[in-house]
Automatic annotation (TrEMBL):
Belongs to the class I-like SAM-binding methyltransferase superfamily. MenG/UbiE family. Pathway: Quinol/quinone metabolism; menaquinone biosynthesis; menaquinol from 1,4-dihydroxy-2-naphthoate: step 2/2. The gene is menG. GO terms for molecular function: 2-methoxy-6-polyprenyl-1,4-benzoquinol methyltransferase activity; demethylmenaquinone methyltransferase activity. Transmembrane segments: none annotated. It comes from the Bacteria. Methyltransferase required for the conversion of demethylmenaquinol (DMKH2) to menaquinol (MKH2). It comes from Berryella wangjianweii. HAMAP family: MenG_UbiE_methyltr. This is Demethylmenaquinone methyltransferase.
């Protein structure tokens, strides 16, 4: 199976999930950062900091932020790691407009950032261009995740690092039960209150529950060609930071077509 409905994990045409994502995130772009803060009780900033700590770059490094949305990862990496340049990309230009405004307010702390609409399944950059590729809450919304992972590997330099923050599955049964109750009832509630879009956050809950567990996603990364794959759970496994490296001495995978 390649292309799936990201709400269910079942095989489906690619455009079904892509159009849903465009519609939802275009509508909630202006309130998305507030939703993250409220719905996570502020923990999302700690998760971003944990993710940024796994981006091993130097002041000459080029970073690609996939599914960068309103710029949370881009600006956290800019402040904490300070690479030479960050390419902040997303499928939805409305989200990038929010990131552009934040950049104009100085949230990148002087690190140069460029913005571009990009489908992570077909990255329009040359192979072996970036020292690090980041993605937060994005891979879950991509209908062909295997292709997106191969594309991330392709644009990394040999030895480069892919860092992915994504909602996951708590291992403790009691904690997992409470978390699922929160996903089913409180996430749509907060979504409705903050953004006015309850249905979009019903989808968010569905996509989280349909996403592979930590070990299964790590296996997907290995199958795509990453080595030294590992993950760190945050807040009991509500989210996990996944890390993989492109092996040295390997040829660049073929660029995705389409």
């Amino acid at each position: 199976m390649s292309s799936i409905d990201t709400a269910t994990g079942q095989e489906a045409p690619e455009e079904l999930s892509k159009e849903r994502v465009r519609s939802i995130f275009a509508q909630i772009a202006r309130r998305y950062e507030l939703f993250n803060a409220v719905s996570s009780f502020g923990a999302y900033r700690l998760w971003l900091a944990r993710m940024a700590a796994q981006v091993p770059v130097d002041p000459q490094a080029q970073v690609l932020d996939l599914a960068g949305g309103a710029g949370d990862v881009t600006f956290t990496v800019a402040r904490k790691v300070r690479p030479a340049h960050i390419h902040c990309t997303d499928l939805v230009d409305d989200m990038l407009n929010v990131a552009r405004e934040r950049y104009e307010r100085g949230e990148a702390s002087g690190v140069p950032v460029s913005f571009q609409v990009v489908d992570a399944q077909r990255i329009p950059f040359d192979s072996e261009r970036f020292d690090a590729v980041t993605m937060a809450y994005g891979i879950r919304n991509i209908p062909d995740r295997d292709q997106a992972l191969r594309e991330a590997l392709r644009v990394l330099k040999p030895g480069g690092t892919f860092v992915c923050l994504e909602f996951s599955t708590p291992r403790n049964p009691l904690w997992n039960g409470l978390y699922n109750f929160y996903l089913d009832h409180l996430i749509p509630f907060w979504g409705k209150v903050i953004t006015g879009d309850r249905d979009g956050f019903v989808y968010l809950s569905q996509s989280i529950k349909a996403f592979p567990r930590q070990d299964a996603f790590a296996d997907m990364m290995r199958a795509a060609g990453f080595e030294r794959v590992e993950w760190q759970n945050c807040t009991g496994g509500i989210v996990a930071v996944h890390v993989g490296r492109r092996p040295h001495g390997t040829c660049a995978p073929q660029r995705a077509q389409g």
